[in-house]
Write a structure and sequence with these properties.
Layout: H1 5-15, E1 20-23, E2 30-31, H2 32-48, E3 56-60, H3 65-77, E4 80-83, H4 90-100, E5 104-107, E6 119-121, H5 129-136, E7 151-157, E8 165-170, H6 171-184, E9 192-195, H7 202-213, E10 218-221, H8 227-233, E11 239-242, H9 244-251, E12 266-269, H10 276-286, E13 291-296, E14 300-304, E15 318-319, E16 324-328, E17 341-346, E18 353-354, H11 358-364, E19 371-379, E20 385-390, E21 395-397, E22 400-402, H12 404-411, E23 417-427, E24 431-440, H13 447-454, E25 466-469, H14 483-489
Parallel strand pairs: 1-10, 3-4, 3-5, 5-6, 9-10, 9-11, 11-12, 12-13, 24-25
Antiparallel strand pairs: 1-2, 7-8, 8-18, 13-14, 14-15, 16-17, 17-19, 19-20, 21-22, 23-24
The protein binds methylmalonyl-coenzyme A.
Methylmalonyl-coenzyme A binds at residues 197-198, 201-204, 224-225, 243, 245, 270-271, 295-297, 397-400, 430, 460-461.
Protein backbone atom coordinates (compact mmCIF):
# COMPACT_ATOMS: atom_id res chain seq x y z
CA UNK A 1 0.00 0.00 0.00
CA UNK A 2 1.17 3.51 -0.72
CA UNK A 3 1.86 5.29 2.56
CA UNK A 4 1.58 8.68 0.89
CA UNK A 5 -1.02 10.68 2.82
CA UNK A 6 -2.03 12.44 -0.37
CA UNK A 7 -3.30 9.18 -1.92
CA UNK A 8 -6.25 9.19 0.50
CA UNK A 9 -6.99 12.84 -0.31
CA UNK A 10 -6.90 12.18 -4.04
CA UNK A 11 -9.40 9.35 -3.68
CA UNK A 12 -11.81 11.89 -2.16
CA UNK A 13 -11.07 14.50 -4.84
CA UNK A 14 -11.97 11.91 -7.50
CA UNK A 15 -15.10 10.77 -5.69
CA UNK A 16 -16.36 14.36 -5.27
CA UNK A 17 -14.93 15.82 -8.47
CA UNK A 18 -17.94 17.99 -9.33
CA UNK A 19 -18.64 19.25 -5.82
CA UNK A 20 -17.10 22.42 -4.38
CA UNK A 21 -13.98 22.07 -2.28
CA UNK A 22 -12.63 25.61 -1.86
CA UNK A 23 -15.46 28.14 -1.58
CA UNK A 24 -13.87 31.46 -2.52
CA UNK A 25 -15.76 34.64 -1.64
CA UNK A 26 -14.08 36.76 -4.32
CA UNK A 27 -13.52 34.21 -7.08
CA UNK A 28 -15.08 31.16 -8.62
CA UNK A 29 -15.11 28.15 -6.31
CA UNK A 30 -12.65 25.32 -6.88
CA UNK A 31 -14.32 21.94 -7.13
CA UNK A 32 -12.48 18.85 -5.90
CA UNK A 33 -11.79 18.07 -9.55
CA UNK A 34 -10.32 21.54 -10.09
CA UNK A 35 -8.15 21.19 -7.00
CA UNK A 36 -6.94 17.79 -8.22
CA UNK A 37 -6.02 19.26 -11.62
CA UNK A 38 -4.16 22.13 -9.92
CA UNK A 39 -2.31 19.73 -7.62
CA UNK A 40 -1.18 17.57 -10.54
CA UNK A 41 -0.03 20.70 -12.38
CA UNK A 42 1.86 21.91 -9.30
CA UNK A 43 3.51 18.50 -8.89
CA UNK A 44 4.48 18.57 -12.58
CA UNK A 45 5.94 22.07 -12.21
CA UNK A 46 7.91 21.07 -9.12
CA UNK A 47 9.39 18.10 -10.98
CA UNK A 48 10.31 20.31 -13.94
CA UNK A 49 11.96 22.76 -11.53
CA UNK A 50 14.20 19.93 -10.36
CA UNK A 51 12.43 18.83 -7.18
CA UNK A 52 12.61 15.08 -6.46
CA UNK A 53 10.95 12.86 -3.87
CA UNK A 54 12.54 13.49 -0.47
CA UNK A 55 13.70 17.01 -1.39
CA UNK A 56 12.58 19.89 0.78
CA UNK A 57 10.51 22.72 -0.65
CA UNK A 58 10.47 25.84 1.55
CA UNK A 59 7.42 28.05 1.05
CA UNK A 60 6.80 31.57 2.37
CA UNK A 61 3.80 32.97 0.49
CA UNK A 62 0.44 34.60 1.19
CA UNK A 63 -2.55 32.33 1.75
CA UNK A 64 -4.19 31.45 -1.57
CA UNK A 65 -5.86 28.46 -3.24
CA UNK A 66 -2.74 28.14 -5.40
CA UNK A 67 -0.67 27.72 -2.24
CA UNK A 68 -2.96 24.86 -1.19
CA UNK A 69 -2.29 23.23 -4.58
CA UNK A 70 1.45 23.78 -4.08
CA UNK A 71 1.33 22.09 -0.68
CA UNK A 72 -0.58 19.10 -2.02
CA UNK A 73 1.62 19.02 -5.13
CA UNK A 74 4.66 18.57 -2.87
CA UNK A 75 2.97 15.65 -1.14
CA UNK A 76 1.93 14.11 -4.45
CA UNK A 77 5.51 14.27 -5.70
CA UNK A 78 6.85 12.87 -2.44
CA UNK A 79 8.69 16.09 -1.58
CA UNK A 80 8.87 17.50 1.94
CA UNK A 81 6.83 20.67 2.54
CA UNK A 82 8.45 23.33 4.74
CA UNK A 83 6.05 26.24 5.39
CA UNK A 84 7.26 29.54 6.83
CA UNK A 85 5.32 32.29 8.59
CA UNK A 86 4.93 35.24 6.20
CA UNK A 87 5.91 37.57 9.05
CA UNK A 88 9.47 36.21 9.16
CA UNK A 89 12.09 38.68 8.01
CA UNK A 90 14.76 37.83 5.39
CA UNK A 91 17.26 37.42 8.21
CA UNK A 92 15.06 34.72 9.79
CA UNK A 93 14.35 33.10 6.41
CA UNK A 94 18.09 32.80 5.70
CA UNK A 95 18.45 30.58 8.75
CA UNK A 96 15.64 28.27 7.62
CA UNK A 97 17.04 27.98 4.10
CA UNK A 98 20.52 27.16 5.40
CA UNK A 99 19.07 24.56 7.76
CA UNK A 100 16.55 22.93 5.43
CA UNK A 101 18.72 23.02 2.28
CA UNK A 102 15.72 23.01 -0.02
CA UNK A 103 15.71 22.10 -3.70
CA UNK A 104 13.34 25.05 -4.18
CA UNK A 105 12.24 28.13 -2.24
CA UNK A 106 8.85 29.53 -3.23
CA UNK A 107 8.43 33.12 -2.05
CA UNK A 108 6.48 36.26 -2.85
CA UNK A 109 7.51 38.33 -5.84
CA UNK A 110 8.95 41.13 -3.69
CA UNK A 111 10.98 38.70 -1.59
CA UNK A 112 13.12 37.70 -4.55
CA UNK A 113 16.87 38.07 -4.06
CA UNK A 114 19.92 35.86 -4.20
CA UNK A 115 18.94 33.30 -1.60
CA UNK A 116 21.59 30.80 -2.63
CA UNK A 117 18.93 28.22 -3.55
CA UNK A 118 16.63 27.91 -6.59
CA UNK A 119 13.69 30.31 -6.26
CA UNK A 120 10.18 30.49 -7.74
CA UNK A 121 7.46 33.01 -6.90
CA UNK A 122 3.79 32.86 -6.02
CA UNK A 123 1.82 35.96 -5.13
CA UNK A 124 -1.42 36.42 -3.20
CA UNK A 125 -3.43 36.49 -6.43
CA UNK A 126 -1.98 33.16 -7.54
CA UNK A 127 0.45 34.65 -10.09
CA UNK A 128 4.23 34.45 -10.33
CA UNK A 129 6.88 32.23 -11.85
CA UNK A 130 5.63 29.14 -10.04
CA UNK A 131 2.11 29.73 -11.33
CA UNK A 132 3.52 30.13 -14.85
CA UNK A 133 5.45 26.89 -14.50
CA UNK A 134 2.32 25.09 -13.28
CA UNK A 135 0.27 26.45 -16.19
CA UNK A 136 2.68 25.03 -18.76
CA UNK A 137 3.87 21.90 -16.93
CA UNK A 138 2.95 18.37 -17.89
CA UNK A 139 0.60 17.39 -15.08
CA UNK A 140 1.88 14.63 -12.84
CA UNK A 141 -0.77 11.95 -12.54
CA UNK A 142 1.08 9.36 -10.46
CA UNK A 143 1.10 9.71 -6.67
CA UNK A 144 4.70 9.10 -5.52
CA UNK A 145 5.10 5.95 -3.48
CA UNK A 146 6.11 6.75 0.06
CA UNK A 147 6.61 4.65 3.15
CA UNK A 148 4.35 5.69 6.03
CA UNK A 149 7.39 6.81 8.02
CA UNK A 150 8.78 9.00 5.22
CA UNK A 151 8.80 12.74 5.83
CA UNK A 152 5.86 14.77 4.56
CA UNK A 153 6.67 18.09 6.20
CA UNK A 154 9.10 19.94 8.42
CA UNK A 155 7.54 22.57 10.65
CA UNK A 156 9.90 24.99 12.36
CA UNK A 157 9.29 25.82 15.98
CA UNK A 158 11.32 28.38 17.88
CA UNK A 159 13.46 27.08 20.67
CA UNK A 160 14.33 28.07 24.21
CA UNK A 161 17.93 28.45 23.09
CA UNK A 162 16.82 30.88 20.43
CA UNK A 163 17.59 28.49 17.56
CA UNK A 164 14.59 27.21 15.63
CA UNK A 165 14.15 23.47 15.33
CA UNK A 166 12.49 21.68 12.42
CA UNK A 167 9.89 19.18 13.64
CA UNK A 168 9.90 16.26 11.21
CA UNK A 169 6.37 15.03 10.49
CA UNK A 170 5.79 11.83 8.56
CA UNK A 171 2.95 10.84 6.28
CA UNK A 172 1.81 8.46 9.04
CA UNK A 173 1.81 11.23 11.67
CA UNK A 174 -0.41 13.44 9.53
CA UNK A 175 -2.65 10.65 8.26
CA UNK A 176 -3.34 9.16 11.67
CA UNK A 177 -4.09 12.52 13.27
CA UNK A 178 -6.43 13.55 10.44
CA UNK A 179 -8.37 10.29 10.71
CA UNK A 180 -8.57 10.65 14.49
CA UNK A 181 -9.90 14.21 14.30
CA UNK A 182 -12.45 13.30 11.62
CA UNK A 183 -13.93 10.78 14.09
CA UNK A 184 -13.47 12.82 17.26
CA UNK A 185 -15.20 15.86 15.81
CA UNK A 186 -17.85 13.80 14.01
CA UNK A 187 -17.20 15.18 10.54
CA UNK A 188 -20.39 15.00 8.44
CA UNK A 189 -20.79 14.67 4.69
CA UNK A 190 -22.44 18.08 4.52
CA UNK A 191 -19.99 19.91 6.78
CA UNK A 192 -18.60 23.21 5.57
CA UNK A 193 -15.51 24.45 7.39
CA UNK A 194 -14.97 28.18 7.80
CA UNK A 195 -11.21 28.59 7.32
CA UNK A 196 -9.57 31.91 8.27
CA UNK A 197 -6.32 30.66 9.83
CA UNK A 198 -2.93 31.06 8.22
CA UNK A 199 -1.77 27.98 6.31
CA UNK A 200 1.88 28.03 7.38
CA UNK A 201 1.29 26.43 10.77
CA UNK A 202 -0.06 23.10 11.95
CA UNK A 203 -3.47 24.49 12.94
CA UNK A 204 -4.58 25.96 9.61
CA UNK A 205 -2.49 23.74 7.33
CA UNK A 206 -3.03 20.28 8.78
CA UNK A 207 -5.67 20.22 11.50
CA UNK A 208 -8.24 22.26 9.60
CA UNK A 209 -7.63 21.40 5.95
CA UNK A 210 -6.98 17.69 6.38
CA UNK A 211 -10.43 17.19 7.91
CA UNK A 212 -11.85 18.57 4.65
CA UNK A 213 -9.55 16.67 2.28
CA UNK A 214 -10.08 13.37 4.05
CA UNK A 215 -13.85 13.61 3.86
CA UNK A 216 -14.46 15.19 0.45
CA UNK A 217 -16.25 18.10 2.13
CA UNK A 218 -15.62 21.81 1.54
CA UNK A 219 -14.38 24.96 3.19
CA UNK A 220 -15.07 28.65 2.92
CA UNK A 221 -11.51 29.76 2.32
CA UNK A 222 -10.75 33.26 3.61
CA UNK A 223 -7.38 34.99 3.10
CA UNK A 224 -7.16 35.90 6.78
CA UNK A 225 -9.20 36.72 9.86
CA UNK A 226 -11.38 39.79 9.83
CA UNK A 227 -14.05 39.50 12.52
CA UNK A 228 -16.88 41.07 10.55
CA UNK A 229 -16.20 39.16 7.36
CA UNK A 230 -15.80 35.98 9.36
CA UNK A 231 -19.11 36.48 11.17
CA UNK A 232 -20.78 37.08 7.81
CA UNK A 233 -19.57 33.72 6.48
CA UNK A 234 -20.74 31.70 9.48
CA UNK A 235 -24.20 31.30 8.00
CA UNK A 236 -22.87 29.22 5.08
CA UNK A 237 -20.67 27.14 7.42
CA UNK A 238 -21.13 24.40 10.00
CA UNK A 239 -17.71 24.08 11.68
CA UNK A 240 -14.85 26.45 12.36
CA UNK A 241 -11.44 26.39 13.98
CA UNK A 242 -9.67 29.38 15.43
CA UNK A 243 -7.29 30.76 18.00
CA UNK A 244 -8.82 32.44 21.08
CA UNK A 245 -8.23 35.88 19.54
CA UNK A 246 -10.85 34.97 16.90
CA UNK A 247 -13.42 34.42 19.63
CA UNK A 248 -12.62 37.53 21.65
CA UNK A 249 -12.80 39.64 18.48
CA UNK A 250 -16.16 38.10 17.51
CA UNK A 251 -17.47 38.90 20.99
CA UNK A 252 -16.40 42.50 20.49
CA UNK A 253 -18.83 42.81 17.55
CA UNK A 254 -21.99 44.38 18.99
CA UNK A 255 -24.41 42.46 16.74
CA UNK A 256 -22.75 39.08 16.95
CA UNK A 257 -24.93 36.39 18.52
CA UNK A 258 -27.23 33.42 18.03
CA UNK A 259 -28.54 34.50 14.68
CA UNK A 260 -25.12 34.51 13.01
CA UNK A 261 -24.37 31.07 14.42
CA UNK A 262 -27.72 29.43 13.60
CA UNK A 263 -26.25 26.97 11.08
CA UNK A 264 -23.11 26.19 13.05
CA UNK A 265 -22.65 22.88 14.85
CA UNK A 266 -19.10 23.26 16.19
CA UNK A 267 -16.62 25.96 17.21
CA UNK A 268 -13.13 24.63 17.93
CA UNK A 269 -10.30 26.54 19.62
CA UNK A 270 -6.61 25.85 20.00
CA UNK A 271 -3.00 27.09 19.73
CA UNK A 272 -3.35 29.21 22.88
CA UNK A 273 -5.30 28.97 26.14
CA UNK A 274 -8.97 29.88 25.86
CA UNK A 275 -9.90 31.77 29.01
CA UNK A 276 -12.89 30.62 31.03
CA UNK A 277 -14.25 34.13 30.63
CA UNK A 278 -14.25 33.85 26.82
CA UNK A 279 -15.72 30.33 26.96
CA UNK A 280 -18.63 31.50 29.13
CA UNK A 281 -19.18 34.79 27.30
CA UNK A 282 -19.34 32.92 23.99
CA UNK A 283 -21.84 30.44 25.35
CA UNK A 284 -23.99 33.23 26.77
CA UNK A 285 -24.02 35.10 23.46
CA UNK A 286 -24.35 32.20 21.02
CA UNK A 287 -25.47 29.12 22.95
CA UNK A 288 -22.32 27.30 21.76
CA UNK A 289 -19.75 25.79 24.08
CA UNK A 290 -16.40 26.19 22.30
CA UNK A 291 -14.55 22.89 22.04
CA UNK A 292 -10.98 23.41 23.21
CA UNK A 293 -8.27 21.00 22.15
CA UNK A 294 -4.52 20.83 22.71
CA UNK A 295 -1.64 20.14 20.37
CA UNK A 296 1.83 21.13 19.30
CA UNK A 297 3.79 21.27 16.07
CA UNK A 298 5.80 18.25 17.23
CA UNK A 299 2.80 16.10 18.09
CA UNK A 300 -0.14 17.47 16.10
CA UNK A 301 -3.28 17.09 18.22
CA UNK A 302 -3.03 15.36 21.59
CA UNK A 303 -6.23 15.95 23.51
CA UNK A 304 -9.71 17.30 22.86
CA UNK A 305 -12.80 18.16 24.80
CA UNK A 306 -15.58 15.80 23.78
CA UNK A 307 -17.96 16.37 20.90
CA UNK A 308 -20.71 14.69 22.90
CA UNK A 309 -20.30 15.17 26.60
CA UNK A 310 -19.19 17.87 28.93
CA UNK A 311 -16.84 20.52 27.53
CA UNK A 312 -15.22 22.03 30.59
CA UNK A 313 -13.89 25.57 30.45
CA UNK A 314 -10.21 25.82 31.22
CA UNK A 315 -9.49 22.18 30.33
CA UNK A 316 -8.26 20.63 27.09
CA UNK A 317 -10.23 17.41 27.46
CA UNK A 318 -9.11 13.84 27.06
CA UNK A 319 -6.30 12.13 25.15
CA UNK A 320 -7.49 11.48 21.61
CA UNK A 321 -7.95 7.82 20.65
CA UNK A 322 -4.56 6.18 20.10
CA UNK A 323 -2.73 8.95 21.98
CA UNK A 324 -1.35 8.31 25.47
CA UNK A 325 -0.80 11.14 27.92
CA UNK A 326 0.81 11.13 31.35
CA UNK A 327 1.97 13.67 33.90
CA UNK A 328 5.56 13.35 35.07
CA UNK A 329 7.83 14.82 37.70
CA UNK A 330 11.25 16.30 37.07
CA UNK A 331 12.92 12.86 37.19
CA UNK A 332 10.45 11.30 34.82
CA UNK A 333 8.37 9.58 37.50
CA UNK A 334 4.67 9.32 36.67
CA UNK A 335 2.69 11.47 39.08
CA UNK A 336 -0.58 10.69 40.83
CA UNK A 337 -3.99 11.95 39.75
CA UNK A 338 -4.33 15.67 40.31
CA UNK A 339 -0.63 16.38 40.73
CA UNK A 340 0.95 19.04 38.51
CA UNK A 341 3.86 17.95 36.33
CA UNK A 342 5.07 17.94 32.76
CA UNK A 343 2.68 16.57 30.16
CA UNK A 344 4.20 13.72 28.15
CA UNK A 345 2.62 12.13 25.09
CA UNK A 346 3.12 9.05 22.95
CA UNK A 347 1.29 7.85 19.88
CA UNK A 348 1.19 7.71 16.09
CA UNK A 349 0.78 11.50 16.05
CA UNK A 350 4.16 12.17 17.66
CA UNK A 351 6.94 13.36 15.31
CA UNK A 352 10.12 11.42 14.70
CA UNK A 353 12.50 14.15 15.86
CA UNK A 354 14.09 17.48 15.06
CA UNK A 355 15.67 17.87 11.64
CA UNK A 356 19.43 17.30 11.91
CA UNK A 357 19.38 17.68 15.71
CA UNK A 358 19.74 14.15 17.10
CA UNK A 359 20.94 15.37 20.49
CA UNK A 360 18.07 17.79 20.94
CA UNK A 361 15.69 15.02 19.87
CA UNK A 362 17.16 12.58 22.38
CA UNK A 363 16.76 15.14 25.19
CA UNK A 364 13.04 15.54 24.52
CA UNK A 365 12.13 11.85 24.36
CA UNK A 366 11.99 9.37 27.23
CA UNK A 367 13.42 5.89 26.69
CA UNK A 368 9.91 4.45 26.40
CA UNK A 369 9.02 6.77 23.52
CA UNK A 370 7.08 9.46 25.40
CA UNK A 371 7.73 13.02 24.20
CA UNK A 372 8.20 15.75 26.79
CA UNK A 373 5.92 18.59 25.75
CA UNK A 374 7.34 21.22 28.09
CA UNK A 375 3.78 22.08 29.10
CA UNK A 376 2.81 21.74 32.76
CA UNK A 377 -0.54 20.22 33.57
CA UNK A 378 -2.59 17.79 35.57
CA UNK A 379 -5.03 14.98 34.94
CA UNK A 380 -8.15 14.48 37.05
CA UNK A 381 -9.65 11.15 38.07
CA UNK A 382 -11.48 10.89 34.75
CA UNK A 383 -8.17 11.55 32.88
CA UNK A 384 -9.29 14.99 31.78
CA UNK A 385 -6.25 17.22 31.17
CA UNK A 386 -5.81 20.79 32.38
CA UNK A 387 -2.80 22.85 31.34
CA UNK A 388 -1.55 25.07 34.13
CA UNK A 389 1.54 26.60 32.65
CA UNK A 390 4.66 26.00 30.73
CA UNK A 391 8.00 24.58 31.76
CA UNK A 392 9.62 26.26 28.80
CA UNK A 393 9.98 30.02 28.72
CA UNK A 394 7.53 30.80 25.94
CA UNK A 395 4.97 33.52 25.27
CA UNK A 396 1.88 32.67 23.21
CA UNK A 397 0.64 35.77 21.43
CA UNK A 398 -2.44 35.44 19.25
CA UNK A 399 -1.62 31.76 18.71
CA UNK A 400 2.02 32.36 17.75
CA UNK A 401 4.82 31.14 20.00
CA UNK A 402 7.47 33.69 20.88
CA UNK A 403 10.65 32.56 22.59
CA UNK A 404 12.00 35.35 24.82
CA UNK A 405 15.64 34.31 24.40
CA UNK A 406 15.57 35.16 20.70
CA UNK A 407 14.21 38.64 21.49
CA UNK A 408 16.48 39.19 24.51
CA UNK A 409 19.64 38.34 22.56
CA UNK A 410 18.91 41.06 20.02
CA UNK A 411 17.87 43.71 22.56
CA UNK A 412 21.01 43.04 24.59
CA UNK A 413 23.10 43.97 21.56
CA UNK A 414 21.91 47.56 22.10
CA UNK A 415 24.68 49.63 23.76
CA UNK A 416 22.07 51.53 25.78
CA UNK A 417 20.80 48.27 27.36
CA UNK A 418 22.61 46.64 30.27
CA UNK A 419 20.27 43.63 30.36
CA UNK A 420 16.71 42.65 29.59
CA UNK A 421 14.07 40.09 30.41
CA UNK A 422 11.31 39.51 27.87
CA UNK A 423 8.02 38.26 29.28
CA UNK A 424 4.40 37.73 28.28
CA UNK A 425 1.60 39.38 30.26
CA UNK A 426 -2.18 39.29 29.77
CA UNK A 427 -3.28 41.16 26.63
CA UNK A 428 -6.95 41.77 25.81
CA UNK A 429 -6.58 40.90 22.11
CA UNK A 430 -3.65 38.51 21.82
CA UNK A 431 -4.06 36.62 25.12
CA UNK A 432 -0.49 37.45 26.00
CA UNK A 433 1.48 40.49 24.89
CA UNK A 434 5.26 40.60 24.63
CA UNK A 435 6.94 43.03 27.05
CA UNK A 436 10.64 43.85 27.36
CA UNK A 437 11.77 44.74 30.85
CA UNK A 438 14.99 46.64 30.33
CA UNK A 439 17.78 47.72 32.65
CA UNK A 440 19.28 50.71 30.86
CA UNK A 441 23.03 51.21 30.65
CA UNK A 442 22.47 54.97 30.77
CA UNK A 443 19.26 56.92 30.16
CA UNK A 444 15.75 55.57 29.51
CA UNK A 445 15.28 53.02 26.74
CA UNK A 446 12.05 53.61 24.80
CA UNK A 447 9.90 51.35 22.65
CA UNK A 448 10.98 53.27 19.55
CA UNK A 449 14.67 52.50 20.10
CA UNK A 450 13.90 48.80 20.61
CA UNK A 451 11.76 48.76 17.48
CA UNK A 452 14.53 50.43 15.50
CA UNK A 453 16.93 47.72 16.62
CA UNK A 454 14.60 44.83 15.83
CA UNK A 455 13.24 46.17 12.54
CA UNK A 456 13.94 43.76 9.72
CA UNK A 457 15.65 41.34 12.08
CA UNK A 458 12.70 39.82 13.90
CA UNK A 459 9.10 39.18 12.82
CA UNK A 460 6.79 41.95 14.06
CA UNK A 461 4.62 39.60 16.13
CA UNK A 462 7.69 38.65 18.22
CA UNK A 463 8.60 42.26 18.98
CA UNK A 464 7.72 43.84 22.34
CA UNK A 465 4.53 45.87 22.37
CA UNK A 466 5.77 47.67 25.51
CA UNK A 467 9.16 48.43 27.06
CA UNK A 468 9.49 49.13 30.76
CA UNK A 469 12.65 50.34 32.45
CA UNK A 470 13.90 48.99 35.79
CA UNK A 471 17.03 49.64 37.84
CA UNK A 472 17.67 45.93 38.28
CA UNK A 473 16.01 42.63 37.38
CA UNK A 474 14.70 40.59 40.32
CA UNK A 475 16.88 37.51 40.83
CA UNK A 476 16.72 34.49 43.11
CA UNK A 477 19.57 33.27 45.29
CA UNK A 478 21.03 31.38 42.32
CA UNK A 479 21.13 34.60 40.30
CA UNK A 480 18.34 33.49 37.96
CA UNK A 481 15.97 36.21 36.76
CA UNK A 482 12.58 35.77 38.44
CA UNK A 483 10.29 36.15 35.48
CA UNK A 484 7.28 35.16 37.58
CA UNK A 485 7.80 38.23 39.74
CA UNK A 486 7.99 40.39 36.62
CA UNK A 487 4.86 38.81 35.13
CA UNK A 488 3.00 39.53 38.37
CA UNK A 489 4.28 43.07 38.61
CA UNK A 490 3.25 43.94 35.04
CA UNK A 491 0.11 41.80 34.84
CA UNK A 492 -2.12 44.83 34.32
CA UNK A 493 0.17 46.65 31.86
CA UNK A 494 -2.19 46.23 28.90
CA UNK A 495 -5.33 46.99 30.95
CA UNK A 496 -4.30 50.59 31.17
CA UNK A 497 -5.05 51.06 27.49
C1 LIG B 1 -0.54 40.12 14.18
N1 LIG B 1 0.15 40.94 15.00
C2 LIG B 1 0.44 40.30 16.11
C3 LIG B 1 -0.08 39.00 15.95
N2 LIG B 1 -0.69 38.92 14.75
N3 LIG B 1 1.10 40.67 17.23
C4 LIG B 1 1.25 39.77 18.18
N4 LIG B 1 0.76 38.49 18.10
C5 LIG B 1 0.10 38.10 16.99
N5 LIG B 1 -0.38 36.85 16.90
C6 LIG B 1 0.50 42.35 14.77
C7 LIG B 1 1.18 42.60 13.45
O1 LIG B 1 2.56 42.46 13.58
C8 LIG B 1 0.79 44.03 13.18
O2 LIG B 1 1.56 44.88 13.99
C9 LIG B 1 -0.63 44.09 13.70
O3 LIG B 1 -0.72 43.06 14.70
C10 LIG B 1 -1.67 43.86 12.62
O4 LIG B 1 -1.30 42.74 11.82
P1 LIG B 1 -2.35 41.84 11.07
O5 LIG B 1 -1.63 40.83 10.28
O6 LIG B 1 -3.35 42.73 10.39
O7 LIG B 1 -3.03 41.14 12.28
P2 LIG B 1 -4.31 40.28 12.31
O8 LIG B 1 -4.72 39.89 10.93
O9 LIG B 1 -5.30 41.00 13.15
O10 LIG B 1 -3.76 38.98 13.03
C11 LIG B 1 -4.14 38.57 14.29
C12 LIG B 1 -4.50 37.09 14.23
C13 LIG B 1 -3.28 36.35 13.66
C14 LIG B 1 -5.71 36.91 13.30
C15 LIG B 1 -4.83 36.61 15.60
O11 LIG B 1 -2.16 36.56 14.51
C16 LIG B 1 -3.54 34.90 13.46
O12 LIG B 1 -4.12 34.48 12.47
N6 LIG B 1 -3.10 34.05 14.41
C17 LIG B 1 -3.24 32.61 14.28
C18 LIG B 1 -1.97 31.97 14.61
C19 LIG B 1 -1.98 30.46 14.30
O13 LIG B 1 -2.51 30.01 13.33
N7 LIG B 1 -1.36 29.70 15.18
C20 LIG B 1 -1.30 28.27 15.02
C21 LIG B 1 0.05 27.77 15.34
P3 LIG B 1 2.10 46.28 13.49
O14 LIG B 1 0.92 46.97 12.85
O15 LIG B 1 2.57 46.92 14.74
O16 LIG B 1 3.17 45.96 12.53
S1 LIG B 1 -0.01 25.94 15.33
C22 LIG B 1 -0.10 25.65 16.94
O17 LIG B 1 0.01 26.52 17.73
C23 LIG B 1 -0.38 24.30 17.52
C24 LIG B 1 0.10 23.13 16.76
C25 LIG B 1 -1.86 24.13 17.75
O18 LIG B 1 -2.21 23.50 18.76
O19 LIG B 1 -2.66 24.64 16.95
Amino acid sequence: MNGNLYASFEAQFLAHADEPCLRLPDAEDWSHGELLARVSAAAGALAELGVRAGDRVVVQVAKSPECVALYLGCLKLGAVYVPLNTAYTPREVEYFLADAEPALFVCAEDAQRDWGVPVATLDAAGGGSFADAAASATPRDAVARRAAGDLAAIVYTSGTTGRSKGAMLSHANLASNAATLREAWGWRDDDVLLHALPIFHVHGLFVAMHCVFLTGTSMVFLPGFDAEAFAGHLEESTVTMGVPTFYTRLLALPDFGREACAGMRLFISGSAPLTEQTFHAFEARTGHRILERYGMSETLMNTSNPLDGERVAGTVGFALPGVETRICGADGEVLATGAVGEIEVRGPNVFSGYWRMPEKTAEEFRDDGFFRTGDMGLMDAEARVTIVGRAKDVVISGGYNVYPKEVEDLIEEMPEVAETAVIGVPHPDFGEGVVAVVVPAGGEVGLGAVEDTLRGRLARFKQPKRVVNLDALPRNAMGKVQKNALRERYAALFDEG
